[in-house]
Amino acid sequence: MTDEPDPRFLRSRQAILDAARELLLAHGPVAVTHQRIAEHAGIGRATVYRHWPQPEQLLAEAMTTVPLPFFESPAAPFRPWLTGELTSLARQLELDAVRAVATTLANAALWNPGMDARRAGFAAAVSQRLASALTEAERAGELSLRGELSDAAALAIGPLYYRATIERAPADAALIERCVAAVGVWTSP
Amino acid sequence: MTDEPDPRFLRSRQAILDAARELLLAHGPVAVTHQRIAEHAGIGRATVYRHWPQPEQLLAEAMTTVPLPFFESPAAPFRPWLTGELTSLARQLELDAVRAVATTLANAALWNPGMDARRAGFAAAVSQRLASALTEAERAGELSLRGELSDAAALAIGPLYYRATIERAPADAALIERCVAAVGVWTSP
């Protein structure tokens, strides 16, 4: 390998990733096989194997093209900020692509160590960002936290995740408001 | 077909279901294919096809062997009853088999109408049982409900489901207590 990879190598890599993502969104993770990717991308199966010997790695990489950027840049006043973040998360979870990635991650993590590491990384990042924002909100006198800070993500996000993936229905403003209220007692309006 | 099916037919059917469940729990839904079931059960692939032409139906049927009996038989006092039910649900969600079934259901439902019907049936049953129990608790003067009754399942179960499948950690008594508190204001201790 040189510093500048073969452009054909990069093109076939991108075509394979696109095919894997399209198959995942259209037919689910069971469709992300070497055979079907090769057919869908119009590329030889041997080429797909050369890029990704394991289909699980390819599935994981295809999923990273759906970003999950939540709870970044917290800012006072924190109650409307949290309401906005949870509303954006609820709207994202209504998109087929995001639901596909979230449920594939939770499912595949049970058997695939690479997926489990990705799940753990996502869970830890969300939990830490939320804990840090709520700690700031408490310092600013806007919030009196209830219980363990480490429970905040489950209490605030769990109902939206259940609504989107088990109940398969939209989360309205009233449910989101109750998720905001679940983390503690807000002293700001 | 006669009223009394061939005992060999029933035996091979059971062997296929056992193999499907074992493959699901050991390797995930991607392993539930005609080929692997035939190998695992020591049965010809044609026999597996004859019983279940579609592997998705087989996966769905293998999953029904893991029962999810929650919120049945509510009884006063309702607060300890709900705490007990949510504790039992949290303990179930710590079992690999239950986590496998719950996350496979949420994931496969996105592409498979049969799985989606099963998901919808589970969500509706849980939501109705919980709503009925909470209505009784309110009538008994034990609870002052907050918000929509149709949000109760998401608020009480969602955090435990997120904890088990995204955070992959146990739910302690404090988190369960906050799920109980999320449905309304309890006037009983």
Automatic annotation (TrEMBL), chains A, B:
<dbReference type="InterPro" id="IPR009057">
    <property type="entry name" value="Homeodomain-like_sf"/>
</dbReference>
<dbReference type="InterPro" id="IPR011075">
    <property type="entry name" value="TetR_C"/>
</dbReference>
<dbReference type="InterPro" id="IPR050109">
    <property type="entry name" value="HTH-type_TetR-like_transc_reg"/>
</dbReference>
<dbReference type="InterPro" id="IPR036271">
    <property type="entry name" value="Tet_transcr_reg_TetR-rel_C_sf"/>
</dbReference>
<keyword id="KW-0238">DNA-binding</keyword>
<protein>
    <submittedName>
        <fullName>TetR/AcrR family transcriptional regulator</fullName>
    </submittedName>
</protein>
<dbReference type="Pfam" id="PF00440">
    <property type="entry name" value="TetR_N"/>
</dbReference>
<dbReference type="GO" id="GO:0000976">
    <property type="term" value="F:transcription cis-regulatory region binding"/>
</dbReference>
<dbReference type="Pfam" id="PF16859">
    <property type="entry name" value="TetR_C_11"/>
</dbReference>
<feature type="domain" description="HTH tetR-type">
    <location>
        <begin position="10"/>
        <end position="70"/>
    </location>
</feature>
<feature type="DNA-binding region" description="H-T-H motif">
    <location>
        <begin position="33"/>
        <end position="52"/>
    </location>
</feature>
<dbReference type="InterPro" id="IPR001647">
    <property type="entry name" value="HTH_TetR"/>
</dbReference>
<keyword id="KW-0805">Transcription regulation</keyword>
<keyword id="KW-0804">Transcription</keyword>
<dbReference type="GO" id="GO:0003700">
    <property type="term" value="F:DNA-binding transcription factor activity"/>
</dbReference>
